[in-house]
Write a structure and sequence with these properties.
Elements lengths: L9 E6 L7 E8 L5 E4 L4 E6 L3 E11 L8 E7 L5 E4 L6 E2 L4 E7 L5 E8 L2 E5 L6 E5 L6 E11 L12 E7 L1
Parallel strand pairs: 8-14
Antiparallel strand pairs: 1-4, 2-3, 2-5, 5-6, 7-9, 9-12, 10-11, 10-13, 13-14
Length: 174
């Protein structure tokens, strides 16, 4: 459990221990529902979270003399949805003057981390950061037909980064 956005299901493990009387109960509430679930004592306990969201978990334990531990609060953030990047409906037609292709990345949970692009599937560039419009100007480019690939990643940490699939637009300069 690392308290950062992750892109996989989460298995949160809890363990109650009491050296004098032993544990009787472990209880938790998920996402401020005021619904409490619990298990018996002296065992490892786990819950699996599989849905996107910034989940709130409140938990406590009780020993055999009915002494309660203080309630503790943790957050577990899951974002398994890839970011979405769009362009400004660039027209893919032949252009005789400089153009400015605009890109915008959105990610409702963890937020966008980087936008990447390449021209003609080479010279890959990392974009200007996250959750903002960025532009690619064509000033200084030679006449020709260019393939522009672009995609984004988000602020999740975990197994297999959830990058967006690459998009493709064509830029024709004459």
């Amino acid at each position: 459990f690392n308290n950062t956005w992750q892109n996989t299901d989460a298995n949160v493990q809890f363990k109650c221990s009491d050296t004098s009387t032993a544990c009787r109960l472990f209880a938790y509430s998920l996402d401020d529902t005021n619904t409490w679930a619990g298990w018996g004592a002296d065992q490892n306990i786990g819950i699996v979270l599989a849905t996107d969201g910034n989940h709130e978990i409140v938990y406590y334990s009780t020993d055999r003399k009915d002494n309660n531990s203080s309630a503790k609060l943790i957050y577990l953030a899951i974002d398994k949805t890839r970011p979405a990047t769009v362009d400004n409906d660039f027209n893919n037609a032949w252009n005789s003057r400089d153009q400015n292709i605009q890109f915008h990345c959105t990610d409702a949970r963890a937020g966008c981390r980087n936008l990447y692009y390449s021209i003609d599937d080479s010279n890959y560039q990392k974009g200007w950061g996250a959750d903002q419009n960025i532009g690619l100007g064509t000033a200084g480019m030679s006449d020709g037909n260019y393939a522009i690939f672009y995609w984004s990643d988000d602020n999740t940490a975990g197994v297999a980064d959830k990058n967006e699939q690459a998009h493709l637009v064509y830029l024709a300069i004459d």
